[in-house]
Each structure stands twice: as C-alpha cells, then as structure tokens.
Amino acid sequence: MPQPLARKPLNAYHHGDLREALIRAALQDAEQGGPEAISIKALAKKLGVSQPAPYRHFADREALLAAVAAEAFRQFSGELRAAIDRPGKRSKLSRLARAMLEFGLRRNGIFRLMFASRVIACAADDSELHAAARETFALLVEALEAPAVGLLRERQALKIWASLHGVVMLAEQGLFTGQMAGTTREELVEDIVAEAKLALAAAIDAATRD
User: Fold this and answer.
1) Do residues 95 and 83 touch, judged by C-beta distance below 8 A?
2) Per residue in 40-85, pLDDT tens?
3) Contacts of 110 (CB under 8 A, 6+ apart)
C-alpha cells in the first residue's frame, strides 16, 4: 500500500521564500519598535527556522536592515506616487508633503529605520537601498512641477525633505504640538510647501535672467 505524501510544514520554505519572509517579518518588528527591534535570532525563531538559515540570504544584521529599508522605501514611494496622481485641489507638492507627514506619523518605526539610522550611510552607492531612496527623491523633484534649471529643483527638494523630516521627528517625540506658534502640523507643512514653491520660482527666474 503506497505511503501517503508527507505534508510540508507551514514553516518550511521553498528556495527563495525565506528571504522575503524575513523581510516581511522584520518590517513588522520595525513597525512596532523601530530598527532596534530587528533581531535575526528572534526572526529565525518566529519563522520556525534554524538560527543559521537566515545567513544564507543575509551576511549579517546590517545586510538584512538594508533589504528591509529598501522595501520600506518602495512602499513609501508607492504611497507618494498615489498621492501625486490622486486628483485634488491642492498642488502635487502639497499632496506629496501631506502623504510624507502621514506616513511618518503612522509608520514611525519604519520611518526611523529609513531616515534616523545609519542603514543608508552603511549601504553601497549601487545597492538596492540607494536605488529605492533615489526613486523616492525623484518623486519629490517631480512634485515640484518646475523646469529643470541646473540643480535648483534638487536643492529645493532637499530642503523640503529636511523640513518634513524635522516635523515628523519633533511630532513623534512630542516636542511639536503647534500650540507655541498657533498652528497645526498640517498647516506647518503647507507653509513649507508654499515657501518652497516661491523660493524655487524666484531662483529659476533669477537663473534664467542671468
């Protein structure tokens, strides 16, 4: 009588599946506790694999963090792209800036992994992480809706990025409530957007008249 086929355990992985499972599980941990919460040992236990198994896909914890951050940037870019493409009365830059603020506050653990850790600085320039981060930055440049004149758009985009990062981090730490200036986070973001667009328009005008 033929023996019944053995059922593959739920925690067993086909070739290549474990890498994605590790990234998904690490994203969940970062959501709760930021980059500090990501542990290869804990992930192996959670996924039901041997402790050496993750190292077949990631040389060390830093390599895993880079892959997780790259996926986070791709998800971030997806939300920003949706905000840009969504019809509305506000400008593309305003919609993108609001989306950045909302993402940073809603997914602060992931945001800290992306923007408040050394993960990007430690990654190679040609890594998937840098490529994913450049894609996000390109969306910000696109949202400015301005002609390319030298690197004026890119410089203004960096200023906006830095300003929005500051708003998110201050709010997350409870250091910005808006009461001191009689404003909300959303109103502050709109001020940043308006000033950025005016400054870029003036810089482009001055550059094209010279």
Assistant:
1) yes
2) 999 999 999 999 999 999 999 999 999 999 999 999 999 999 999 9
3) 27, 30, 31, 72, 75
Residue (of 37, 71, 62, 77) closest to 119 by Cα position:
62
- Segment (H or E) for 114: helix 108-115
Token reading at 69: 């951050």
Say how far apart CA 178 and CA 184 lie, in whole Å.
5
| Residue 153 and residue 201 in contact, taking contact as beta carbons nearer than 8 Å | no
* Own/partner pairs, 129-134, CB within 8 angstroms, 24+ separation: 129/66, 129/67, 129/69, 129/70, 129/73, 131/70, 132/69, 132/70, 132/71, 132/73, 132/74, 132/77, 133/73
Q: How far apart are CA 18 and CA 23, in angstroms?
A: 9
Please state the pTM of the whole predicted model.
Answer: 0.86
Q: Are 72 and 116 in contact (CB under 8 A)?
A: no
Long-range contacts of residues 11-16, Cβ cutoff 8 Å, at least 24 apart? 11/47, 11/48, 11/49, 13/49
Beta carbons within 8 Å of 24's beta carbon, 6+ residues apart: none
- Give, for 40, the enclosing helix (H) or strand (E): helix 40-47
Closest CA to 122 of 80, 173, 69, 178: 69
